[in-house]
Amino acid sequence: MSDFTSDFWHLYVGGLTLVSILACLILLWISGTTKANTHADNTTGHVWDGDLAEMNNPLPKWWVYLFVITVLFALAYGALYPMFGKFQGVLGWTSRGQHTAEVAKVEAAIAPIYAKFSGMTPEQMAGDSEAMAIGERLFMNYCAQCHGSDARGAKGFPNLTDKDWLGGGDHATIKTTITQGRIGVMPPMAAAVGSAEDVRNVANYVLSLSGSPHDSVRATQGKEKFAACAACHGMDGKGMAAVGAANLTDGIWLHGWGEEAIVRAVNNGFNNQMPGQSALLNEAQINVLASYVWGMSNKAAN
Fold first, then answer.
1. Mean pLDDT value of segment 153-180
2. Are 121 and 60 within one domain?
3. Which segments cross the bilayer (predicted)?
4. Is 161 part of a structural domain of the chain?
């Protein structure tokens, strides 16, 4: 109801709801007091199937009482809880308030569990079985939908178990990424590179950087045009974590491998987003989750 720009709609919805409830009582009263024209045997004269006569019997009292109780319950509910327009009810209950209270209750209950991890380093947490068990459950609930249950990702979703990090793989960066999310943008570069042939030449040059199969003649011709990409990926193609630009020399292809995939990337660019999780997880949970993710790519250090 807070989206309404005037009191008209609040009064319209609230009034219509109240009138509808009261109309039920009025309808019941009318139906109970109105006399129908019946014959001496209490039939109305309507007959079906030759011998099935309609009678004018009153509603059972238990049904009438139950109907009245239902209407009274609706009125009492509307007085206590939000039901009539933007009237909040005597109790002042809101779904947001109940959710906030329940979240606070849960966080208070789990706080002692996470308190023991607050003073640990990422290395210590990555080696703690309890912390990693909690981290795994958090990962399954909030990260596995995109990165997979094994954290190896998929096309367009990074593998978190290797050493290839677009924005940096240290614990602090991972924690920031989980908290705030990330937006990865590669603008379409075809206009900057040149013609369609130039784009294919650059694609082959990019393939050559990682030793992937490529056309060496095209790669040689594309080296000069790669300067349009060097602002982010560097002249050596090793990328820059500061802007989230991928390393093109390691043979890891987030958006697909091969000449056609690279041509599409140059022509169309990318616009990817990882949502931040701060609205769903508190700082202590994010700390444990970040340690779990960090530990998957640093198993040798655990």
1. 92
2. no
3. 12-30, 62-81
4. yes
Mean model confidence pLDDT for the chain: 90
Is 233 annotated in some ligand binding site?
yes
Q: Tens digits of per-residue pLDDT, 120-163? A: 999 999 999 999 999 999 999 999 999 999 999 999 999 999 98
Whether 24 has a binding-site annotation, put simply, is no
Is 192 found in the same domain as 62? no
> Is 147 marked as a binding-site residue?
yes
Report the domain count for the chain: 3
Residue 75: inside a domain: yes
Q: Is 146 annotated as belonging to a binding site?
A: yes
What is the 3-state secondary structure of 224-245? HHHHHCHHHHCCCCCCECCCCE
Displacement of CA 37 from its chain's centroid (Å)? 63
Exposed/middle/buried for 178, CB within 10 Å: 0-12, 13-18, 19+? buried
Residues 264, 193 share a domain: yes
Residues 284 and 114 sit within 8 Å (Cβ to Cβ) = yes
The verdict on whether residue 171 carries a ligand-binding annotation is no
* In a domain? residue 59: yes
Q: Report the predicted TM-score, pTM, of the whole model to 2 decimal places.
A: 0.71
Tell me: is residue 143 an annotated ligand-binding position: yes
